[in-house]
Amino acid sequence: MTNYKRIVSYLYRYENEEKTDNVGYVRVELRDKQCRVFVGIRDYKMPTDSKYKLCMYSNNDEGIFVENLYTKNGMEELKLTTDPQNVFGSKKSVSDIEGVFLYRNGKIIYLSQWTDRTVDLENLITVEEEKDEYKNEKMLVEAELKEDMQKISEYEEEINAQTKNINNESNQWAENNITEDINKLQQDNTYSEDNIDNQKNIYSQEKIDSEKIILKAIEPEKALKNMLDTYPKLPAFDNNELFNCVRIRLNDIGLLAMDNWRLGTNSFLVHGYYTYKYLMLGKVIFSDGKHAVVLGIPGMYSNKEKYLANLFGFNQFVPVKKTMVKTGVFGYWITNIV
Question: Distance (Å, rounded) from C-alpha 62 to C-alpha 101?
Fold first, then answer.
């Protein structure tokens, strides 16, 4: 005989977190290893052309997103199917589920529960919004990462081409000078194999020395100091944590110590750079009085940006103005330069 179980519960409208009118029902049916969920709403107060998030919740007040509900005329019906051992991908079984809720604009509007346990309505939304936000941000990160990696690939090709041209020009310079001196030796009747070999050795050594000079000229510490001293200065900030800050470009990261080069392929950094067209290099003073050189990505503070910044290693936000509320404030997501 087929196992069959059914749960039927009334759906109530909530106003200011208080239960008011009965406006529908929720029915959950278990049959043949399948779970079907029916939601029926009849509410004249339901606004048309609105979006609600339909969720279920478990016995530990964990919100489980089910589907978006777009209203038409206050008479709505939903029929959904899910795995009874993994309800809507939550890894929760039907026996863990205690009710259904719909919310909009951060407030629970409708709730149906089939247990007597007191539910923390605010916590239900917080958990579900965090999960839903995570899904959206994950999709956003993946899309941006794909776009940014294409830009990084094009940038690397450009750098490789420039490096190849520099090497070719350097080699051509050496060959031209050797040829010129050999011709001079021939004209002076001092041409000999020993003289030619000696001249080649001189230019080989000069080339090595010139390469050493180039490398020495771009030593990370000197390059860093040069950038802080000569690059375009950013306006002084009201926030005293940041000082001596300059604007740099993405490819300037290559002048820093090698351990910092990985930042050049950091998706969050690249996205910020192409949004604001610059990066910040400067110094920060921490609460303990210690100083550090930091690289900053310009941006506006929000929970979404905070999540993305932390995901890509930028764990601190420094606003340019002193403020008690960071949301919507411009500043820099920073990481230390090593």
Answer: 12
Task: Please write down the HEC assignment for all residues of 173-238.
Answer: HHHHHHHHHHHHHHHCCCCCHHHHHHHHHHHHHHHHHHHHHHHHHCCHHHHHHHHHHHCCECCCCC
Taking 50 as the threshold, does the pLDDT of residue 105 lie above it? yes
Q: What is the mean pLDDT of residues 267-296?
A: 86
- C-alpha 63/C-alpha 53 separation (Å) is 11
Q: How far apart are CA 63 and CA 125, in angstroms?
A: 7
Joined tokens for residue 76 = 């709505």
What number of helices (H) and strands (E) belong to the chain?
A: 5, 13
What one-letter code names the amino acid at 310? N
Q: Which residue has the tokens 């306006």?
A: 235
Q: Which of 29-33, 68-72, 164-168, 225-229 has the lowest mean pLDDT?
A: 164-168
Q: How confident is the model at residue 302 (pLDDT cuts 50, 70, 90)?
A: confident
List, edge to edge, every strand of the sheet that includes 291-300.
Answer: 242-248, 279-285, 291-300, 330-336, 316-319
Contacts of 64 (CB under 8 A, 6+ apart): 55, 56, 57, 58, 87, 88, 90, 92, 97, 128
Token couple for 193: 């194999």
- Quote the CA–CA distance of 14 and 333 in Å, as a whole number: 40
Name the band, by pLDDT with cuts 50, 70 and 90, for residue 28.
Answer: very high
- Concatenate the DSSP letters of all residues of 61-110 into one string: --EEEEEEEE-SSSEEEEEEEEBTTBGGGSS--GGGEEEEEEEETTEEEE
Q: Which two tokens stand for residue 50?
A: 């609105």
